[in-house]
Write a structure and sequence with these properties.
The chain has about 170 residues and is mainly beta. It contains 1 helix and 15 strands, in the order ββαβββββββββββββ. It is globular.
Length: about 170
């Protein structure tokens, strides 16, 4: 049985149940450094709970997957949020699932706009980092400390995730 979800444009409203969109379309911004820098302030809350918790800042070098994507597994982090900010303007795929009584529910898929990132809330089921079409680097902020901060869930049958149709000029 093939179950399919088609990715849609990432918006704050559509993603609000799962975390925060990180971009410069943000009302709380102001100039600093003698007007040479614009600060987009307080974009998200970084969560780091549990024993000896601390915030980690890392760089990830991610390789793209083939589409349609066979989504067989999602993961979540019970002790902390996890933010992904691309270091290039290329879009990437974001997959999240609401938590249900027997694990994650049906996936929701989003394609970021160039320069958008996300912060998954603590305990949010999500797919792995998925660049589209080319390798991509990310700045990642998440939680370190004692205890296992990773849970994985394997679907009985994979979901097929498709990218949205692109319009071409004939």
């Amino acid at each position: 049985m093939t179950r399919t979800v088609t990715a849609r444009k990432l918006t704050r409203e559509a993603f609000a149940a799962f975390g925060d969109v990180l971009d410069t379309d943000w009302p709380d911004h102001f100039s600093i450094n003698n007007g040479k820098c614009e600060r987009y302030h307080d974009l998200t809350r970084v969560e780091a709970a549990g024993p000896n918790a601390r915030v980690l800042v890392s760089l990830f070098k991610a390789t793209p997957y083939e589409f349609p994507l066979a989504l067989g597994m999602v993961e979540r982090h019970p002790f902390g949020s996890q933010a992904f900010m691309p270091l290039s303007p290329a879009p990437f795929l974001v997959v999240v699932c609401a938590d249900g009584p027997e694990g994650p529910g049906a996936p929701h898929a989003f394609v970021t706009a160039p320069g958008q990132g996300v912060n998954y809330r603590r305990n949010t089921w999500h797919g792995v980092l998925t660049p589209i079409g080319a390798p991509q680097d990310f700045l990642v902020v998440d939680r370190g400390g004692d205890g296992s901060n990773l849970e994985e869930f394997f679907f009985d049958a994979p979901w097929q995730v498709r990218l949205p149709e692109t319009k071409t000029d004939d």
